[in-house]
Amino acid sequence: MVHGYKGVKFQNWARTYGCCPEMYFQPTSVEEVREVLALARQQNKRVKVVGGGHSPSDIACTDGFMIHMGKMNRVLQVDTEKKQVTVEAGILLADLHPQLGKHSLALSNLGAVSDVTAGGVIGSGTHNTGIKHGILATQVVALTLLTADGTILECSESSNADVFQAARVHLGCLGVVLTVTLQCVPQFHLQEISFPSTLEEVLNNLDSHLKKSEYFRFLWFPHSENVSVIYQDHTNKPPSSSANWFWDYAIGFYLLEFLLWIRKKESSDLSHKIFTYECRFKQHVQDWAIPREKTKEALLELKAMLEAHPKMVAHFPVEVRFTRGDDILLSPCFQRDSCYMNIIMYRPYGKDVPRLDYWLTYETIMKKVGGRPHWAKAHNCTRKDFEKMYPAFSKFCAIREKLDPTGMFLNAYLEKVFY
Q1: More confident site: 364 or 253
Q2: Residue 88 vs residue 377, higher pLDDT
Q3: Alpha helices of 195-283 — where are they, by DSSP H?
Q4: How many CB atoms lie within 10 A of CB 141?
């Protein structure tokens, strides 16, 4: 019999949202998850599944039942021939990397943080950069879903294909993801090179940068022309390190602006060590995906708005990344290659800083150029916006309503999305 806890307070990592679920469960098996859902049906309670709690929005909050998947974290199968791994949805990617390493495998792309679960990382549409690479969910070849009535659905391109197309970015509203099968690649090393440039140079030569480096991104420092270009590419060089870019460029920039900006840096290591970095500050984040061809227009407009309103301060670099289009119904990259434009406001010492003018300016520009917000980040969009943004929105809604007719898996965040 699964045991629930009262009085547990949940807070997301950024401490931007918290909640007090009525009951908190940490199941260790599929049967125990089923018991929680049966109890929820009996008592007419809502259920929210939480993974690593890294989403800066309130997507994981509930005042009903909360299921934390952390104890369902095993590697179930490694198929070395197909280079595929099947894991329980509660496994942290940080724990998966060394397990894959034993089989000389790796994931072809990762986000900046690995303290996230396999089920959560796909549910929120997590991404990195690289125009040949899709969001992380495009690496999923199969998953199993436990629906509100206790049915288990095996989903892949060949089985429950319509649910599979929805469930790879599931928002936690289709059921409980139990297992995920990921397509891996042979283990590889990456070399990271960062070097200074200008906004004009990068925007005018965007296509050549995208061709030159497999995982290309850049940081633009607002209120200036300065850009730091970051190339990450396969290498056979032995591991070597210079301090991570987050400190060197993002924080250090304002301390040692000139010295850092003129310096070129290189480091190499196992892929997951280059992809991920330690983010030490609690933060508010917005991250929208816009059509790739709108990159220049959107950034120049943001720059012009900041210049026209000198009191509007952007105190942290804008991170610009690129991702291949896909066919996942609620993927921000649905049917189009995309540019993600990420703005961050840190919360030094846990204090909020004035941000609303800058945020609204940014959001207005993103909407104007046809943007779609990252599901895990803050945004002010409602169903009307999503119907315009997503050609397949009504298809996803129909699948959600069929799998969860009573709205067991909804919460305040999702009500704004679907009602």
Answers
A1: 364
A2: 88
A3: 199-204, 206-212, 245, 252-255, 257-261, 271-275
A4: 16
**CA torsion 159→160→163→169, rounded to 10°?**
-10
Which residue would you say has higher pLDDT here, 60 or 415?
A: 415
Residue range 69-89: mean pLDDT, rounded? 97
As a whole number of angstroms, the distance between CA 268 and CA 271 comes to 8
> DSSP code of 102?
H
Alpha helices (runs of H) in 124-256, residue ranges in sequence order: 161-167, 199-204, 206-212, 245, 252-255
403: part of which helix (H) or strand (E)? helix 393-403
Amino acid at 369: V
pLDDT tens readout for residues 153-165: 999 999 999 999 9
> Which residue(s) pair with 266 in the sheet?
193
Given a contact cutoff of 8 angstroms between Cβ atoms, the answer to whether 90 and 114 are in contact is: no
> When comparing pLDDT for 174 and 53, which is higher?
174
Tokens representing residue 168 in the block: 């790879």
Count the neighbouring beta carbons within 10 Å of the beta carbon of residue 418: 17
Written as one string, the DSSP assignment of 305-348 is HHHH-TT----SPEEEEEE--B--TT-TTBTS-EEEEEEEEE-G
- pLDDT tens, 137-155? 999 999 999 999 999 999 9
Alpha carbon of residue 242 to chain centroid: 26
Number of Cβ atoms within 10 Å of the Cβ of 380? 12
Q: What is the pLDDT of residues 197-211, one digit of tens each?
A: 999 999 999 999 999
Distance (Å, whole) CA 139 – CA 96? 14
Name the pLDDT band for 300 (thresholds 50, 70, 90). very high
Q: How far apart are CA 162 and CA 398, in angstroms?
A: 11
| Nearest partner of 260 among 247, 269, 277, 272, judged by Cα | 247
Pairing of strands 10-11, 4-5: unpaired
Band (pLDDT 50/70/90 cuts) for residue 248 is: low
Nearest Cα to 141, choosing from 185, 104, 174, 94? 185
**Rounded Cα gap, residues 207 and 131, in angstroms:** 10
